[in-house]
């Protein structure tokens, strides 16, 4: 089975993915890391040198490759991946795949991301919590249509990582 974790940056895709790997004894693949390995460049470098259109085409190509894996894997997507091209349809239509939207509220995302914004190029320029909340709110409004197509939704607010992990395991 391929378990696809979907959600906004800071929603816990990577940390929950690492916990699921331990419980399910499978591999974790971060799509952005996979792209960087295949392209021999960071996502930031790809955007700078070849542009977003090139990146999004490669993202779809590599997503399709990963969705054909036969072994059990947790696949953590970039926050924007489900929103481009036919990516969400590819995920829904893939055999032996479960998609899970890790849904976090704007205030919870702001609290997590404000501390880590220097490591996140998309939000590094944002100065205040209010500006960050507006930025996230706009993105979530645009992305909600795609995220909500996931097979399951798990609300992450006010839950520990262990509680979220257990909730996902119960869904599977």
UniProtKB/TrEMBL annotation:
Binding site for substrate: 32, 56, 79, 143
Pathway the protein takes part in: Metabolic intermediate biosynthesis; chorismate biosynthesis; chorismate from D-erythrose 4-phosphate and phosphoenolpyruvate: step 5/7
GO CC entries: cytosol
Family matches, as Pfam families: SKI (PF01202)
Family: Belongs to the shikimate kinase family.
PANTHER family with a match to the protein in the record: SHIKIMATE KINASE, SHIKIMATE KINASE 1, CHLOROPLASTIC
Name of the protein in its database record: Shikimate kinase
